[in-house]
Specification:
three-stranded parallel sheet, about 10% strand, three-stranded antiparallel sheet, about 210 residues, mainly alpha, about 40% helix
Length: about 210
């Protein structure tokens, strides 16, 4: 676009009727009037170059309720990641990498924390922002056991990425029962060998197509 075309685009985008709108709304409205200045992507590019493509109008960027935390593991079992996912069945249950339970409540999370806490070096335990992992009883238990909790970024849509990746791997396995598990025993019987294969045999792209134990 020429400088004159960019100037006209900015002038139109800053008209009172368009001042709080995104290019996705401006371009169609102009098209209804028989006016074409640029595509949505060109509109966005020009506005971005002038710092006008984010939170147009009086809207303000949402403030995070807390800063994100960062942890780097330098030895095995120094940082752990946990979350819950649904496993289809007639009764309903939750699964995690190391346990399958009938109910998704705080004492299941507490039980898992107790297993981790027997390690000589207390790990950082990272989770998403789910209510189970923020439960007062769970936080109190982690504090008592000396396990440091860590959480995903606030308002993030990707949840707990590492744990969710594991769940996706599990649910897309050919042998995963798409119609659901018959009972709790069958669910646990399937999860246990899967976790062993995931840790010792599965080739992970994130670690140069090696196994977790390489």
């Amino acid at each position: 676009m020429s400088p004159a075309e960019r100037d006209r685009l900015l002038a139109v985008a800053n008209e009172p009727r368009f001042a709080d709108m995104s290019p996705a709304r401006i371009v169609p409205m102009l098209a209804d009037e028989g006016v074409y200045l640029a595509s949505e992507s060109s509109f966005a590019r020009v506005l971005r170059a002038h710092g006008q493509n984010t939170h147009r109008g009086r809207a303000k960027a949402p403030k995070a309720t807390r800063p994100p935390t960062t942890h780097i593991a330098t030895v095995v079992c120094q940082a752990w990641s946990w979350t819950c996912t649904a496993a289809k069945s007639s009764t309903g249950r939750s699964t995690t990498p190391t346990t399958v339970t009938m109910r998704h409540v705080w004492y299941n999370a507490t039980s898992l924390a107790e297993r981790i806490a027997v390690l000589q070096t207390k790990p950082v335990l990272h989770g998403d922002n789910g209510s189970t992992l923020w439960a007062t009883t769970v936080l109190a238990m982690l504090n008592w056991l000396g396990v440091k909790p860590s959480y995903s970024r606030p308002c993030a849509s990707d949840d707990n990425a590492y744990a969710e990746s594991l769940f996706r791997t599990a649910k897309y396995r050919p042998e995963f029962p798409v119609k659901g598990f018959v009972d709790l025993h069958e669910a646990r019987a399937w999860v246990a060998p899967f976790v062993r294969r995931y840790n010792h045999d599965y080739r992970h792209s994130a670690v140069q197509v090696k196994t977790k134990r390489s």
